[in-house]
Design brief:
alpha/beta
């Protein structure tokens, strides 16, 4: 091969390399169009922090009685903790316990009774340590509440409807409690009629009508400013004609110091039983936050209407739960229902064991 043929050979090799490269590129592009490229992303696992999990757990779990009585418990917890932290029982011990009881609105008479009995036992060497003292106080407080019947009185075969009167001052939660009780009684299978006897407060009738719609109860209303006794009497007669089991009668709730109100309530009680029904329960609704004023209310309403039980509302928002002891020990009236929140299920039968446990734990 001569030197003149070398350039031709290099040219042919270059052309061949270029053709080969173009072919490779074309083939790769054809494959790329035939098989789409899919990017696979690993699933992302959500990160749940411990704080978020704790919040969800709290929201999902219903509040216990202990949780709902946080404010009432705080009246005791400091004093109890301080007493248990001492090595002996001394004068400061009694001062702290008395102060805690009075702050909780147990009342002077009840506080003196509780502590007087314990002081006698300490003097007799029956109680020698702070732990024994707190245990004895807890036991004594329980004994004053346990054993009382808290059932709502309902009598069958009385020839007419049972009548439950709801009494109490304005703002205590009387109408709302009546609505909740209606819903609970209907859930038990009883038929209920509401009698809107609070004719002096314009909003009371509307509020009761709303509760009637929610619960499925029937309702009888009168003219605004009309005679409450007539409304309740008409309600009882209407319930009797329809074979309704229970009449829940709302009443006026102006200040308990108003003599006219007490006379009016006496009349309501008398007139309610002139028809076919029978008054089997008179429930006094007391706002727990009113403290010792609630005891005065209980005295006056009992004189006027022969109260058979107390509904203690707003107990979850009060540090004055000790009013339970004053009502039951001084007046002998059982606390039958307590309000621990806003929903229907938060109006519950008073459980003294749970109440005492919540205060001391």
């Amino acid at each position: 091969m001569n030197n003149s043929s070398l350039p031709m050979i290099f040219l042919l090799l270059a052309i061949a390399g270029l053709v080969f490269g173009i072919g490779v590129v074309a083939i790769n592009r054809r494959k790329a169009r035939a098989v789409p490229q899919i990017q696979r992303v690993a699933p992302v696992t959500p990160v749940v922090t411990a704080a978020a999990a704790a919040v969800e757990a709290v929201l999902a779990a219903p509040l216990s009685v202990r949780d709902r009585l946080a404010k009432a418990r705080s009246s005791f917890s400091g004093a109890v903790g301080s007493v248990l932290g001492r090595s002996e029982i001394n004068d400061a011990t009694w001062l702290e316990l008395e102060e805690a009881l009075l702050r909780a609105d147990v009342g002077v008479r009840v506080a003196q009774s509780l502590l007087g009995a314990l002081q006698a036992r300490v003097k007799a060497k029956e109680i020698t340590t702070p732990t024994q003292l707190i245990d004895a106080l807890r036991s004594n407080m329980s004994s004053q509440l346990v054993g009382t019947s808290r059932d709502l009185n309902f009598k069958a075969n009385i020839g007419g409807p049972n009548i439950w009167l709801m009494v109490g001052v304005n703002g205590a939660g009387k109408t709302t409690s009546l609505g909740k009780i209606a819903a609970q009684q209907i859930a038990l299978g009883r038929t209920v009629l509401m009698a809107a006897g609070d004719t002096f407060r314009a909003a009371a009738g509307e509020q009761l009508s709303t509760w009637a719609e929610r619960s499925g109860a029937q309702i009888v209303r009168g003219a605004e400013g009309g005679d409450p006794s007539s409304v309740i009497f008409d309600g009882v007669q209407s319930a009797h004609s329809r074979n309704i089991d229970l009449v829940l009668a709302d009443t006026a709730g102006r200040l308990q110091s108003n003599t006219n109100l007490m006379e009016e309530l006496r009349k309501v009680r008398r007139v309610a039983e002139k028809g076919a029904g029978k008054v089997t329960e008179v429930l006094l609704v007391i706002d727990a936050t009113t403290g010792q004023n609630g005891l005065q209310q209980a005295r006056q309403f009992t004189d006027a209407t022969q109260v058979t039980g107390v509904v203690l509302t707003k107990l979850d928002g009060s540090a004055k739960g000790g009013i339970v002891f004053a009502i039951e020990t001084e007046l002998g009236i059982p606390v039958k229902l307590v309000g621990l929140g806003e929903t229907i299920d938060d109006l519950v039968v008073f459980n003294p064991t749970e109440f005492i446990d919540a205060l001391f734990e």
